[in-house]
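RETRY 2/3 - previous attempt timed out on the joint model. Re-submitting the same 679-residue input unchanged.
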Amino acid sequence: MADNQKMWADLGMNLELHDMLCEVLPGAIGDVFMSQENRPEAMDYFDMVLADVHGLRPSELVEFRKNGGKVFGTFCAYVPDEVIFAAGGIATGLCAGSQFWVPGGERYLPANTCPLIKAMLGARFDRTCPFYRLADIYIGENTCDGKKKAYEILGTDVPMHIMDLPQMKRDKDYLKWADEIKDLIKVVEETTGNKVTAEALAENIKKINAKRAALQRLYSLRWKENVPISGTDVLLISQIAYYDDPERFAAMVNKLCDELEKRVADGVNLAAGKKRILISGTPMAIPNWKLHNLVETSGGIVVCEETCTGTRYFENFVDESGETLDDMVQNIANRYMGINCACFTPNTARFDDVVRLAKDSKADGVIDVNLMFCQTYDIEGRSLEERCKAEGIPFLGIETDYTDNDAQQLKTRIGAFIEMLG
Amino acid sequence: MAKKYIGIDIGSTASKVCVLEEGSDPVYEVLPTGWNSKITAGIIKDDLVKRYGDIDDADIIATGYGRISVEYADSVVTEITCHGRGGYEMIGRDCTIIDIGGQDTKYINVKNGRPIDFLMNDKCAAGTGKFIEVMANRLGLTIEELFELAEIGKPISISSLCTVFAESEVINYMGEGRSREDLAAGVIDSVALKVATLVQRKELQDTIIITGGFSNNEFFASLLSKKLGKKALAMPDGRYAGAFGAALLARERSKKA
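RETRY 2/3 succeeded.
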C-alpha cells in the first residue's frame, strides 16, 4: 500500500481527500460482499481486484504508460473498445458510482443532475480517482443531455473526444455510427501514433467477443433453476469488466464459470426460498451495490441485470467475418447499435429485451431502478411497466441516488414487492 | 384461554395494536410512537401483559416503519402487505386502498384478496400526515380543529410540492391576512390533490377505501372522492388496518403451520 501512496502522489491526486475514500471502502466491502454465505471460491480474484481497486489495475496502467502506451477513459457501453485496443491503446471505464464524489460535482453542476454525472465531475476535479488521472484522453458520447453538457466542463481539464451517437435506428443511423467509429479510429491513431490495421482490428474484435462470451456464459449459469452465485457478486464482475484487462478478465470469468457449473451439478442453490428478481434500468457503477444489497437482504436474489452494467454490455457479438477495415467497422457499428438505451426513440426493443430476459432468467418480478434525474429512463419506465404488466410480469419502479437516506423506504418497498410475489 | 393473534403496527407517528381471539371482535389500541420505537414496543408489551397476562403463547407479527424494533414479534411483514390484508378484510371485497400515513402515502391494489400492485410517495412529505401536522402547528390548531375549519373555508391554492416550501407559502398568505379557515381548507385541499395525483397513475377499482390516520374523516373522504372522480370510502377503523392485517396474517400463518 506504501507503493500505492507514492503512485497516487505521482499521479497528482489529492491524497488527504483520497484517504477518506479509502477508509470507507473496506467496511462497505465487508458489509456487502463478505457477509454473504456460500460464495464461489473463484470470486477471490474479483475480491482482490476490488480490495485494491485504486492500486492493482492503476499500477499496470502506470507501467503501460511508462513504455509510451496511451490510456483511453470511457463512460459508456456504446464506446467500441475494439478500435482502442487495435491501436495498441487500453480502454478503461471511468466509473462514477460513489456518493463520495457527488458534492465535488455539485460545485460544477446543478443539484438536479443525475448522481452518475455529478460523481464523474467530482472524481475528476477533486483528483480522488487514479483512473481519471491515468487516462490520456476521455471518449465521451451524447447519450443524454446531462452527460453532453458535463463533458464540456470536463473538457476544460482533460482532452476529450465526443462520439455523436444517433438517437434513432434507421439504416442511415447505422451508417452514421460507422462513420463516428471511423472518426474515433483517427483519434486513437493520432493519440497512440499507431495505425489501426485490418489485422489488428480483426484480432481485437475476437478478443472483445471472447469477453462477451465469458459474460454470457456467466449469465446463463445464474439463469439455471439452481442459482450458483449471488446477484451482488455478478454485479461486481460486470463492473470490473469495464476496466480490467479483457483477456485476463475473460479467463477469470471462465474459471469462475467452471466452478459454477460444478456447483449447479452439486445442487448448490442460493435461490432456495427466495424470489428471483430481474433489475432493469440505469447503470450501477462501482461501488454502487445499493439495490442488489437491499434485494438480496430482503428475501430476493438478483438473477439478471438489463442495464449497462449487465446484459447491454455483452449481448450480441461483433460479426467476425469482415475482411476489409470498412466491413469490420460496419460490423462493429451494427453490434453497438443493437444496444437498447433510453436515449433512442422509439426504444420498444428494450421492452422486448426485458420480457425475453425475464423469461430466460425465470424471474418472478422486475424491478426497474433509475438514477434520480435520469429523464429518459424515468419517462420510459411507465411504458416498460405497462408492457411488463401486459406480459403478466410483476413490476416495481424505483428512483434513487447514491445516498442511504432512502434505504428504509426502499427496504419497505422491496420487501413488500417480494411478499407480493410470495 | 383462546389462542391470541396480535398485530403491532409501529408507524412514524402512531403505533397501533390489534388483538384477535376466536369468537371475539378485534380489540384495537393506539398510542403515540414517540421518539424511540423500542421503548414504544416495550410499552405495548407491558400493556398486553397487563390486559391478557402471559402473551408468550400468542402469535405476533410486527409491521410499520418501526417493525424491526418489536423484538418479541414472531415475524415482521411490511406495512404494504398488512394494510392490503387488513383493508380487504374490513371492506370484505377486492378494493383499492389509499393509506395516508404519518410519513408515507400508499396506494395498494388488492385483487383476489391479495395485494398485486402498490405505490408509495417518494421521499417528499407532501400529501402525508406529516404535511397536515406541520401546517396545523403553523396555524396554531390541532389536527381535528384544522379539519373542522377546513370544512367551512374556501380553499386557497397551495401549489408547492415541498412541505418546507409549502409552509413558506402558507406564511406568505398569513402575512396577507387571509382567514384561517381558508388556509385550513387550502391545506386539506392540497393534500387531497397530491394524494389523487399520486394514485391516478395506477388502476383504481370500483371500491376505494381510505386507511391511516384520517381514514374516519368523512369530509376528507368526500374531498378526495371529488378529486378522484370516484367514490373513496371513509373507514371508521381504517387507522388499524395495518395492525389488523398483521394479526390476520399471524392467524393464517399459524393455521398453515
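DSSP finds eight helices and ten strands in chain B. Closing ticket.
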